From TrEMBL:
Signal peptide, first to last residue: 1-23
Domain G-protein coupled receptors family 1 profile: 418-670
Membrane topology: Multi-pass membrane protein
Alphabetical GO biological process terms: adenylate cyclase-activating G protein-coupled receptor signaling pathway; hormone-mediated signaling pathway
Pfam family, one: 7tm_1
Chief localization: membrane
Keywords: Cell membrane, G-protein coupled receptor, Leucine-rich repeat, Membrane, Receptor, Repeat, Signal, Transducer, Transmembrane, Transmembrane helix
Membrane-spanning segments: 403-427, 439-460, 494-516, 528-547, 567-589, 619-641, 653-673
Protein name: G-protein coupled receptors family 1 profile domain-containing protein
UniProt organism field: Chrysodeixis includens
CDD domains: 7tmA_Glyco_hormone_R
Any GO CC annotation of this UniProt entry: plasma membrane
GO MF terms held by the record: G protein-coupled peptide receptor activity; protein-hormone receptor activity
Lineage, top ranks: Eukaryota, Metazoa, Ecdysozoa, Arthropoda, Hexapoda
Keyword Hydrolase: no
Amino acid sequence: MMFRGLSVWAVVLVLIDSRQASGHVMSESVSAVLHQTNITRLTAKAIHAAGYHLHRIEHLSIMDAPKLEHIAVEDLTKMPNLKSLFITQAPRLHRVAPLPSLPELRTFIITTSGLLEVPNLSHVHDNKKDSNSLAYLQAIDLEGNHIKRLSPHALRVRADQVSLNYNLIEEVPAFAFKNAQISKLSFRGNTKLKHIDDNAFAANLLLRQLDLSNTAITSLPTEGLQNLETLRIEKTPSLKYIPSIYEFQRLQKAYLTHHFHCCAFRFPERHNPTRHKLYETQIAIMQAKCQQRSEEERQRRSLEPIKVYTVPQNTNDSLEDDVSTATTSDEYDGNIMDEYFSDSGSWEDDEDQGQFHEPVNNTLRIGSISAECGNFSISPRKVECTPAPDALNPCEDVMGWSWLRASVWFVIAAAVVGNVAVLLVLLTNHTELTVPRFLMCHLAFSDLCTGIYLFMLAVVDLRSYGEFFNYAYDWQYGVGCKIAGFLSVFSGQLSVITLTIVTLERWFAITYAIYLERRISLSAASKIMIGGWLYSFLMAGLPLAGVSDYSSTSICLPVESKDVGDAVYQGSIFLASALAWVTIVGCYVQIYRSLGGGESYGRRGAAAAAERRIANKMALLIGTDLLCWAPVAFFGVTALAGAPLVDVSHGKVLLVFFYPLNACANPFLYAILTKQYRRDLMTLIARTGHCNWLVEKYKLATTPPPTAHTNPSAPAQLMPLVDSVTYQRSQSGQSQSKDTSEVPL
């Protein structure tokens, strides 16, 4: 905390000086301490009753005063040597009247009390005896009170540090610090502070450090902050936009909340192109002016007569003349600066009072004069900014590379068009709903959600091309990113569950083709999928409830792990994908073995070709699942273990080419390329009455040649993808071939 050390300093100072007053020993100065007192009014009489001589008190401390309600400020003038006033834990002290002239006062501290407004301190140093030495307050600390508003003129003071931390301030009005000279100002912990007027800090050109951490501000004014050196706005996620670096002429360090605000400081030409253009224009004008001045100086020197210098006999005299000349030049420059900034006054005080901070304006003067011609930097200043862009939040667009930006649209087209085609055919078909159709609908819907997620990222990437950090707040902390992240996690988990159930159902249907009691019924499949939907909703909803976060990256995935809950959440997602893949591999191995795969007892011809086709299809299905889940899971586990092997920039390649692989391949592998889907599609086309030529062509292609056992006038029944092998192994199970035909490999 920026100024918390002030209170500690005051207490330590009080304890040291109180030793002199503990035995009522008369000395030059004392520290008056009233600890756990029951006084209701702080008056000169109460202090005198405690055994202190008013004219000797330098430090007055009131600690733990539960009944204190009023301070007789006029009695403070009876303590001419008072340098510090420290009050803490006075919950009934709601207001303090305007303080009178207290020429020696240096610290004013009221913490953890009941103040409702800032006391008026503008007249504390009105009657300073030494007019050549401007007095100032070292610290004004009003931390931990109940201050809701800033009174007009209350803080028009000369102070090194002003702390209003952890109050209830809701607004900083215009010109709240007009004619004040404050070096360090802190509003940390005012969680209700939402609005700061554009002119709130105007006319306070000495402000060097500003702390607005733990507030609810949405914007930061720039008027009066030209000479700011240190800016703190940590733990303030509501801050939407950061001003251009060109608005802060002296900013050196910035402690912010969002990574993309530091990107704005790093790339000012993209953050505010208009302001950057003005900066370049100013630089060009300065360069032209300095070049012209340089030419005039060379011409002037060329016209000067050549002077002959004689070496003086006394070397010391020469050195003294050189020093004298240099001193005269320095004095001339100093006179110019003093004249230009004559309204700033002198910042030096007497030795007893110490020295006020060095004005920032002095630095500005020296810099502007010495760097006016040719000694300035053409490139923008570098600001030490945190949190710096890292692997999870780089200063780049959503898609990063141009080729990735173009490729994602092909992936989106394949995922959206393929899954919409599957849903359209399956949902409009009026045939009896079977388990494979039911599961294919769920699989197509989950994969369609993945395509919509990628479409949302691609649209945001197009809108924010080249300057994403200007749109980062609206996207990452808006509803859009939450919806995109929810769709991503939901579709991924639902797809994993559905693929696993599809594989198990296929394993039951093929391995136990002749056992009707070993099939997954539609009722059982419905119950399983209800559980899958609930699980997917839960996993996708946890980041919205605070477990991990969709707003941690521009791609809206919960990849940042801050605590144990986040690690458990991410680990459970990776574990679910791993178990699903192992289950799918095991089921396909059993299916292949049940169909006679791997046996070598003279199988030839059509049966061997069917086995090869089945093996190839199984390898394709398993391979797509592996390519989809394995890279994401591997790099996710390494990141979870604290040793990430890939950053977000390269992880986007996984996002575009591996993560949506199932969403693109599943509609083709499980539906569009199967005989059952083609039959359903032709049935739908025939029902519409259009493209009859296509329907007739399909019938001719699927009608087998007439035999003695078939009716030449009617098309033969379609066999499943595993027709040759299944038919040889289960001729007696022809009554179940219709079910088997709807679970293609």
